[in-house]
Write a structure and sequence with these properties.
With about 180 residues, the protein is an all-alpha fold. It has six helices and no strands. It has one domain. About 20% of the residues are buried.
Length: about 180
């Protein structure tokens, strides 16, 4: 859900910047459509790495930065370098409608994928932990058992397999 929202945010920001400087036409629409596909590259890897990593939100964020940021930076720089020669094309239309929107997309995707998305993910984990802890406190006051509260404190992950979840359950039971 967060990936979809962040991808939409990248597309909307790219669209807003493009229509500020360029006339809205078919070529602008094509660039926005392409940005919908490319925006996933800036969000999916960061969020999936965050979900799979273990530990506190800060440790998870550090893991994400180590694993995904070099690839995102290298991919963004190579994309910019491959599009940049179009700025010196003799036809101004090519410069404006083939080069500028993709340079804007790459810059916006890097900023939102590497700065805003990690903040949103960390904030989301913090909010979920507070809500789960609050529900756990109510359960303790109502006579709920501590094992259910421990189980609820773990952030559920869509990407973990059922075998990994069973292993985590057995590990918490041993402790």
């Amino acid at each position: 859900m967060i990936v979809a929202v962040m991808s939409m945010l990248i597309v909307i920001t790219t669209y807003a910047i493009c229509v500020t400087f360029l006339k809205f036409n078919l070529f602008n629409v094509a660039a926005i459509l392409a940005s919908a596909g490319l925006s996933i590259e800036f969000t999916a890897h960061v969020s999936s790495s965050f979900v799979v990593s273990k530990g506190t939100p800060e440790k998870r964020l550090a893991q994400v930065m180590r694993e995904t940021y070099p690839a995102i930076i290298q991919g963004s720089i190579s994309t910019m370098l491959s599009i940049l020669p179009l700025l010196w094309h003799p036809i101004p239309f090519i410069q404006l409608y083939m080069c500028v929107p993709f340079l804007i997309l790459t810059a916006v995707g890097m900023i939102e994928g590497m700065v805003i998305l990690p903040g949103v993910l960390t904030l989301f984990v913090r909010v979920v932990n507070v809500l789960v802890k609050h529900d756990g406190d109510e359960a303790m006051n109502d006579g709920g058992d501590a094992e259910k509260i421990k189980e609820a404190e773990q952030l559920p992950s869509v990407l973990t397999s059922s075998a990994a979840r069973e292993e985590a359950k057995s590990e918490t039971q041993r402790v």
